[in-house]
Amino acid sequence: MVIYVKNMVCVRCKMVVQSELAKLGLHPLRIELGEAVIQEDISAEYLSALNEALQRSGLEILKDNKTILAEKVKAVIIELVRYGDAKLTINLSDYLSRKLNYNYTYLNNVFCKTQGINIEKYMITRKIERVKELLAYNEHNLTEIAYMLNYSSVAHLSSQFKKITGMNATEYRMIRCASRSAGAQAIQ
């Protein structure tokens, strides 16, 4: 049985789902971003109990097919931004269409209706969130980050970053480093 889960966007979310399934005595065969495949077919009562448990962690079982499809789009984008090692050789619309076996226009319409934002804007916000993470780690310069996230240039990344966050990447990095230093001093 496949269970689709809303807001399942990271490894910790997968661990929460796995833990809640185990508490109910269920046996997952596979847990991916946005979905869990379990060995058993479960009753509506079990499904409701699982949903209540997941909601305590900010997750939710999905039942509507269009919302499930939008969550699949989100999962593909998150996976691409977070774990995509290779440069994307085709445009995002073709990639999503091939990956999910739907026409991109249909995907974007469903996504807009269920999420209130189009796929392109969602992709940009996910990429900028990833840029912020990478800047906070202070392990890569902006050129490396632009390459890692398939930006055509550092200028393009910088422009999007400023548009979304209201500050440039250097300012953001300085603020993050200053807040980390203040937090470290407070611990000592």
List keywords for this structure.
alpha+beta; Arc Repressor Mutant, subunit A; 188 residues; four-stranded antiparallel beta sheet
Average pLDDT for all residues: 90
**CATH fold description of the domain at 121-187:** Arc Repressor Mutant, subunit A
List unreliable stretches of 5+ residues: none
Share of residues in helices: 55-70%
CATH class designation of the domain at 121-187: Mainly Alpha
Order the strands across the largest sheet as they lie in space.
2-3-1-4
The secondary structure category is: alpha+beta
- CATH architecture type of the domain at 121-187: Orthogonal Bundle
Strand content: 5-15%
Q: Let me know the number of strands.
A: 4
By oligomeric state, this entry counts as single chain
Shape: globular
Radius of gyration: 19 Å
Biggest sheet details: 4 strands, antiparallel
The CATH fourth-level homologous superfamily of the domain at 121-187: Homeodomain-like
Q: What's the end-to-end separation, in Å? A: 50 Å
Count of DSSP-assigned helices: 9
Element order, helices and strands? EHEEHEHHHHHHH
